[in-house]
Design goal:
Strand content of chain A: under 5%
Order of helices and strands of chain A: HHHEHHHEHH
Number of helices of chain B: 7
Distance between the termini of chain A: 53 Å
Distance between the termini of chain B: 31 Å
Strand order of the largest sheet of chain A: 1-2
Order of helices and strands of chain B: HHEHEHEHEHEH
Radius of gyration of chain B: 22 Å
Strand order of the largest sheet of chain B: 1-5-4-2-3
Structural class of chain B: alpha/beta
Strand content of chain B: 5-15%
Number of helices of chain A: 8
Shape of chain A: globular
Oligomer: heterodimer
Amino acid sequence: MAPYDPASWGPGAEPLLHVALGVGFGFMLERAGFGSSRKLTSQFFLNDLSVLKVMFTAIITAMLLVFWASGLGLLDFAELWVNPTYLGSGILGGLLFGVGFVVGGYCPGTALVAAATLKLDGMFFAAGLLFGILGFGYTLPWIDRFWNDSGAFGRLTLYEWLDLSPGVVVLLAVAMALGMFFAAERIEVWMRARAAKGGAP
Amino acid sequence: MSGKLLAAGVLFGSAALLAVLWSPLAPRRMRVVDAKARAALDSGEVKISPAEVLALMHDRRTPLALLDLREERAWNHFHLLDSRRLPAGPGAAAELLALPARMVKILVDEDEMQSARLYVDAVRAGVKNVYLLQGGLRSWLATYGTDAAGHSTVGHAALGDRHPASDPGAQAIPASLVRKVKLQGAGARKAAGCGG
């Protein structure tokens, strides 16, 4: 029964799996065009919402696979690592992340993809990312209480919070995502028409 | 029909089917969880030796709950220091679930019979970090409640946790100890990737 422990498959199995997953993920990001900062930042101007559509498609596909496997007893969801909820630091971190994304044109993963294809801006962004990690590590003791205690709810899932069946929550999430995709396509058409008339930013 | 509409239909249909089947599939999930819990019991991976329990009693970094499932009379006669009674009954698993998830819960009884039953119920209820005292209090007293000649030092008096064997002290912890307890959900906060 999943999840399995790759470390038990033999020495080196876990790092190899990580490398294979990382290369595969990076390759798919590059193929989706996410190594281009122009394409990535276009979502903030509503011209191209591919990032939203691709990411949410990945999220709901993975969600369906995880909960179907869990529902059929093939996966013990309780054993799966779920990021603990830290509302305060999560909201502040999300805002900083968003500002960095708009200004720099990348998020961490796509910056590495861009750097891998030798894009200069991607390399600088990745270098800034490493510098930021270093700075965060050194200043962590000053913000440790906020980082660890602001709105800490532990492992909190949507179905626990809403007190609904996981199956119903998955259905709601998929319906929400499909609604967003539909709206995103309409917005893109509207923005293209606006640009054709010369009104786009 | 366009590819996008077909994909959306497949995703929505799959999600709707999952929502409908989630409750009917519950017995199947429970069977799997039960089998996993019984396998953990059979392999002994959740049965903690008296020495490791003693080490945990003296480890201030690990939150610990020692839960004694025996009758009140047996509890009054002898129990481990800082343990508390948890009458083994229908509500016991719910009481365990109410304890903090990041706390090691060790079930204690005379042997292992009641502990093993409650262990399965607890795992089924989603309780984390639950273990049982290997061999129960018989094993504990055989280790820490005997004199040099091997005779029991626990008499008929109801001493509760005032008997020396209730806590033999940190000096009784063996230098080399194979630890089975792995506190789930413990450790430093892990960073999460942004997903792209």
